[in-house]
Fold these 2 entries.
Entry 1:
Amino acid sequence: MAGSSLGNIFRITTWGESHGAALGVVIDGCPAGLSLGLSDIQAYLDRRKPGQTKISTPRKEDDAAEILSGTFEGRTTGTPISILVRNTSQRSGDYGEIADCYRPGHADYTFDAKYGFRDYRGGGRSSGRETIGRVAAGAVAARLLDECGIRLTAYTKSIGPISVNMDKFDRQAILTTPTCMPDTEASVQAESYLADCMRSYDSAGGVIECVISGVPAGLGDPVFEKLDAALAKAVMSIGAVKAVEIGDGVEAASRRGSENNDPFRVRDGEIVKTSNHAGGILGGISDGSDIILRAHIKPTPSIFSSQKTVNRQGEEIDLAIKGRHDPVIVPRAVVVVESMAAITIADALLMGAGARLESLKKIYGR
Amino acid sequence: MAGSSLGNIFRITTWGESHGAALGVVIDGCPAGLSLGLSDIQAYLDRRKPGQTKISTPRKEDDAAEILSGTFEGRTTGTPISILVRNTSQRSGDYGEIADCYRPGHADYTFDAKYGFRDYRGGGRSSGRETIGRVAAGAVAARLLDECGIRLTAYTKSIGPISVNMDKFDRQAILTTPTCMPDTEASVQAESYLADCMRSYDSAGGVIECVISGVPAGLGDPVFEKLDAALAKAVMSIGAVKAVEIGDGVEAASRRGSENNDPFRVRDGEIVKTSNHAGGILGGISDGSDIILRAHIKPTPSIFSSQKTVNRQGEEIDLAIKGRHDPVIVPRAVVVVESMAAITIADALLMGAGARLESLKKIYGR
Amino acid sequence: MAGSSLGNIFRITTWGESHGAALGVVIDGCPAGLSLGLSDIQAYLDRRKPGQTKISTPRKEDDAAEILSGTFEGRTTGTPISILVRNTSQRSGDYGEIADCYRPGHADYTFDAKYGFRDYRGGGRSSGRETIGRVAAGAVAARLLDECGIRLTAYTKSIGPISVNMDKFDRQAILTTPTCMPDTEASVQAESYLADCMRSYDSAGGVIECVISGVPAGLGDPVFEKLDAALAKAVMSIGAVKAVEIGDGVEAASRRGSENNDPFRVRDGEIVKTSNHAGGILGGISDGSDIILRAHIKPTPSIFSSQKTVNRQGEEIDLAIKGRHDPVIVPRAVVVVESMAAITIADALLMGAGARLESLKKIYGR
Amino acid sequence: MAGSSLGNIFRITTWGESHGAALGVVIDGCPAGLSLGLSDIQAYLDRRKPGQTKISTPRKEDDAAEILSGTFEGRTTGTPISILVRNTSQRSGDYGEIADCYRPGHADYTFDAKYGFRDYRGGGRSSGRETIGRVAAGAVAARLLDECGIRLTAYTKSIGPISVNMDKFDRQAILTTPTCMPDTEASVQAESYLADCMRSYDSAGGVIECVISGVPAGLGDPVFEKLDAALAKAVMSIGAVKAVEIGDGVEAASRRGSENNDPFRVRDGEIVKTSNHAGGILGGISDGSDIILRAHIKPTPSIFSSQKTVNRQGEEIDLAIKGRHDPVIVPRAVVVVESMAAITIADALLMGAGARLESLKKIYGR
């Protein structure tokens, strides 16, 4: 319980169900004086909006945000920022038939096991629409980081068997391809793969990568609040994520130390690493290199072919899911991963502000 | 800062440096009435003790624990359990030479960047010895889980290129092989691989898997406190872990939905899954199947061949590390992964106790 | 920062400014299965609504609540309950003149000192309207406590020099007198005293008492999370509260031990205290007697006589406050004190659910 | 449960029982670079040490502290500071007789109600010795505050009916009188009153005041983390405290607004208040004036005259307490109140470091 908040100082609390009246987020602890407007929020929300391409659910939602508190004359005041998005396209009728049964790969059974009953309409709180609050908060975090010279870039790295060719990396393509891949060729192949999935009433997964640049060395804490640990939690808390890697991740485990260590050198008077296997974090603390992470996303569990499952009465049944579902979650999850990373870095920035006596004295003019 | 605590109700706080007077942990929130003795703690600590095999550091430490509070007449009282381990084999002289330089793959540079200076002796707080507190707490958590019918089994899944054959799974071997592999044949091959690494002044990484059985369906929370998110944070917070997978993890991303969904069926009146790609967690909540996770561990950064790096004065130097170091961290980290998983599940058990009004009434007899 | 949340498991987050679009609260961690409707919330909000009597501000607000999430078919689902109240009677014009000056007894100066600027309209986040979120959450907590046999009764104990005669205690009068005093005679005297204050452009303070009955022995924790400590924080966090007492409070300090100790006896097979100087809490843990606390409220700082103060430019000025203000805050704060107490007890109930191994086993059927 | 930690960034965790092996504290989140030695800690601990005067328990304890981690070459490193004090004068035999009975005014009954059993030796975790960890942490917090120009002065304001005459305030007397009163005449009278209490096998309570000067305006947060709310919790969490006042406290409730508001003026280019009824906090945020608080302490519950109570078997008995007990807790609690205030202010200082975007940029050089 009480699991709807994240962060220590930059602290977000999301709420809302897929087919309830609205969804939203409260962002507490954002520093005062940050320029912030509705368009900053809306630009992020639009990146996760459904109904925009052939490979996302045809459910149409405006997902129009309203800022209810925490800003004054275009700047944050230091008090909680409450952001609300009304649900407008509920078609609960679609879900009546599954009110009573446990969809494979979904949280229907586990919600019932935990709470005794559930809001079954569209998955309720376990719906992907829950990420609206995350993305609205991510937009605020990204604004704060931008002021501090920190920028995030997330993109689809692969869908099913189709991977991006990083030599053809095209930042613009992230926002223009329906797959959010930074490689238009790979994107075309992925679309074709997805079309094939849809024809066979099936779905696909994929991998999202996020690069965070401009992070000063020294963010994050030793032990349990390591920056990579906080990132892993934030990213793994996105529904459908089944693995998180930092830097070379899984590959590091089969390497030798001499291959995996990143040498330090001096460039223009700054200490830098000449490689970045570590992904920008050493001992849980940022080292000044780009922070690099990957989220592995399972295929959409809602598929239209028949599946074996059980209903609330404990009877074995065959289930054919109807409704409106994405054949792949990955493209719409790109901005969610970026948002969770931004929120985590923003909190680390604030938590670390008084790490040294000398910075504390500087702030308070003592 | 303040990153040395983990958990909400079952809450641990570790402290101590590699070459300080002692290391320890305070475990707050453990329920009263649990039978707990020093031998329960020591058995866990002995599994991570150095100097036991050819493939671990020759530094000899007794790592003898003392329970200073929180138990009375052999049972926990509900008050904080403080456990202390004195350091006895400090040879700080070994480290004098690196006081001033930044070892590649270590946290020397990042600690300096964060705090302005550091306790350089043996890595200080970023040393592997920091895990002593985690393992002592893990022993307490495992005792609690055991009373609730929950058991954890962690083991080495691979070292460098050598992987366990799961068809030859031998639980006993986990405690008897120097690699903690559950497959004696693979273990012999891994030892040979490690001997080769050592001959070339190099080191190796590997993969640890942990299986948690007997977890009731319904543990963990939706959204940010998903059970898999909490596990990812706990495991990623172990130094040297670079990736965490739940269930099929990385592999799930390249599968189709029809391959990845686990059907529900009824067996002996219980709802069960007939496969377990999900690794025992759906929507962040346990589903009653085994929880399965993997930690990918980087090769030991302390290698004895010469490396390029920089010192505190910003001069480029060649560094040859001396001292006592494990050629592979994996075998000694097995019990650390198991401990972090146990601590996380114990907290989820306590956090979820009042998830339903009816359980709350039951507890308070209302 | 990040100070807008309270509680560990039953955790509330409030947001909103006096003259912003809306105010609200997110209640996370409420157990599933609790019957809860809009009327439960509205009944509490109506008790703090302005414009109802001669002794409250003439500002008229409907304070109509909307439940946006967390309930389904009339019951809580265990997911966050988001409650919203739109502001409808903003007259910011009234406040333009004080945008630039520091009202004595208000938070204008301290907000500027902390954040560099502030939303000055109606006090922004430091306005009494901030308590709307607290009261909405208090209504939910009270519903939960009611199911567990715990009832709260708060009332005005004194206004200025006029105190209630507890021998004439009339529970009904709390809801019918404009002062919320449980003694109609004292209430008439207090109204007369307040009329006098208003004639001299002045204001009054007073004391609120809250009695919580039916609390099982064993709630609260030793050390920092003592139940009285948590109550003290919750109640002192209400703007204008300057002192909090538990049980005999201030009077206990001048007594002797033999006068202050409460003897234990047995009544109908139950261990009870024959007096209750302690106010229902011993060593930070509830003892089964009524919990009794008092909040001392300062006089409304907004007075209409001229006051010496300073403006943002650091110039000394004379200030005559205009606008709509309560001559006394106490009656409208009664339900706020009751709400804060309810929220605190609800959290203690949930935090303590697993205090003993045997209760934990009972919940999970192990 | 899990109630043994306090603070958000400057976070302390205490542990230990009266008659266990040792007591201690872990202080996490203290900034790096603070000069700190054992003598800083010991000086504070010596102020609460028993056996020093006729009016404190004859139990003799050295209370010698050991710093086990977190400092290096005389300075804090930013990692957790673990401090340990061994118990040396346990005489558990004294307590055998009360193992089975519930002492009035003590936590024996409530611990049993909560946990099912208890460590009865000397009150276990509910003993006054629990404050050792608080005071050791308070010493560290006071060191940090001192570097930032913040100083705390706590003293006994009254014992039983004897109050200090503030016109005769003598700071030196706080450390030299056995009562910790800043007025030697009042102290002599209080000693005489206490002698009378002891002759009649009785005990006394009293009031402690704490003044915190040099606090910059802008510390603390609106809403739930108001600085006065945090102080109230910290101080009320000390066993035996029954009321907490800020500024004029209880008296404010019977005043008029025109008497209670503090005018702002300009002195030497600084905005100041010309009176300080508010006690240095407005809207939960420090205003730059002295912060003033008072703790009201109940009389020692351990009295040597016969009392009516009940034993664990539910039988009514007459109890005559033996052992070694203070006739008044107040003088030894003075440093505890000062410590809790210091810890709270230190945390507020760290929490507020990034309240404005401009300070955040300053710290990170952006």
Entry 2:
Amino acid sequence: MKVSQIGQFGLIDLISKLIENCRQPQEESWQNLRTGVGDDCAVWQGERTCYLSKVDSQVQGVHFTLDIISWRDLGWKALAVNLSDIAAMGGKPLYALVSLGLPFETEVENVISLYKGMLELAGQTGTAIIGGHISASSNLFIDVHVTGCISSHNGLVLARSDARPTDLIGVTGWLGSAAAGLNMLRQKMVLEPPAAEYLKMAFACPEPRLAEGKLLLEHGVRCAIDISDGLLADLAHICQASGVAAEIRAHYLPIRSEVKTAFADQAFEMALSGGEDYQLLFTASPSVMEAINKVCSYPVTVIGEIKAGSPGQVFVIEQSGKRTSPSLAGWDHFKKN
Amino acid sequence: MKVSQIGQFGLIDLISKLIENCRQPQEESWQNLRTGVGDDCAVWQGERTCYLSKVDSQVQGVHFTLDIISWRDLGWKALAVNLSDIAAMGGKPLYALVSLGLPFETEVENVISLYKGMLELAGQTGTAIIGGHISASSNLFIDVHVTGCISSHNGLVLARSDARPTDLIGVTGWLGSAAAGLNMLRQKMVLEPPAAEYLKMAFACPEPRLAEGKLLLEHGVRCAIDISDGLLADLAHICQASGVAAEIRAHYLPIRSEVKTAFADQAFEMALSGGEDYQLLFTASPSVMEAINKVCSYPVTVIGEIKAGSPGQVFVIEQSGKRTSPSLAGWDHFKKN
């Protein structure tokens, strides 16, 4: 069977089982491992501090093409997608290592721009770039590995597996902006400068929600994920890991006017399934959600509720009251775009 | 300018300076960083433990082709080359994260074999595989990131920068075996089974010298590197970082009979410049070297001496007493093979 047939998540599932079968309880490494494969980051215990480890990659032709993203923005984004996972655990980034695969004909100046983009975000977030590797490669790729830590002394993290029925579902910022930006760039759409800039930045320079992740954790939230695959897919990940179902209200989804104006017909699908928004999706009791809304200066929107039900199932309730299962209504349709 | 013109080390030099200019002394991450870019691993301080971080990659068509290495061996090697860097600091591996770039048509069974190879070595060394990432990619690549630690409470490591004039130069195991293995496989040479197996394993399944690295550190060695680029290149790295020169004695180089028999004319060049042997190259005072030779059950050979001189310069003394500069005599010539 080919990996294209089993799919990314099927393959991850197989590999997770292989690794689990090789667990060595007598080893220090396994003893101190608190969360392995399956959450936004791995979590392991130091002497007092809890550390987070994450790797993510940007591959040319898969995650980007160089006609729609600059080398500087690519550097920013390659680090940002990893810091977003640190944010989704409630952590703080410490160190990054960068592995580059570069075609022989790559301009040195472009590699410098790539690093400048990464270093700008690293500087804003206190992340030290401490090493890396450079290899020739027919296809450009950037692999970034980040180590972070959780400052709280009780070692709690934001886990995917802690959603409980009756929890409200919250999301930071806006949904669908990155997908709209990607579409605008691919289709070479000409929009008014402020809208064009907003959408471009949403796709090319996502801001990892580190302050918000820390605030969520400090105020009693226990369950979060960052939205990389899309709202529906990432909410399904939470529901699978937590053994619950979810209902979201279509008309609650926070969608920016720039997205609605430029993509009237697709805005809702982009918000549901667009992916790469790198906002935080989380669940919390109504009282915790109320507290978050009071202390968080960045927008937070309640979009639905966790339900007891078939693990991983996500329903969308339209304003008319119609209830649909988005695995049929949303995800596949958008993939055709 | 293209990266092919400036070269890997020129590019690393440029990037190191960019990073150095962005150092943030007020940040916890930078404060706890003990060694950044430029040694086998980055070193950062936890509460008491010193941690090591390293990333290395295997790229199809650059580091391997699938006609000469099995998927299982590729998995082993992708982890081994990283553990070798942990060994070269005197450390112990703890955690690994694996980032895969897979063509759509990759067989799932091959990915499982790759992981089985990695997990076999992980099991032998107490390394826990705790996460990773899978992406589509036109070209197969495997990026492994390893976190290790230094057990010694004084936080000493084996650094590249601690070679001193009058130190002896030692090397574990044998030189040139991996290059001989690669050549045998590429040329489809048919050798006697034991020789063929030895050479294949030397290329495809290097054993990271973790026990030896720990022993070197415990017995007072302060300077080491693992041989990935080749004896001459890696000795030059030590000499550059330490501001010293070196002399090696050609007839002292430990070369296995299998290499000499199969590659009579090339054996010496393979030992000097072949690379990928993943043995430890280290320097130590004569008394420390004597102690190492007594306690180390794995072969260690003294091959030369550190000298005051032009930083990074390495001389080879032939048995006749003739002194050559290998940057002219060795490295480039072998690259033509």
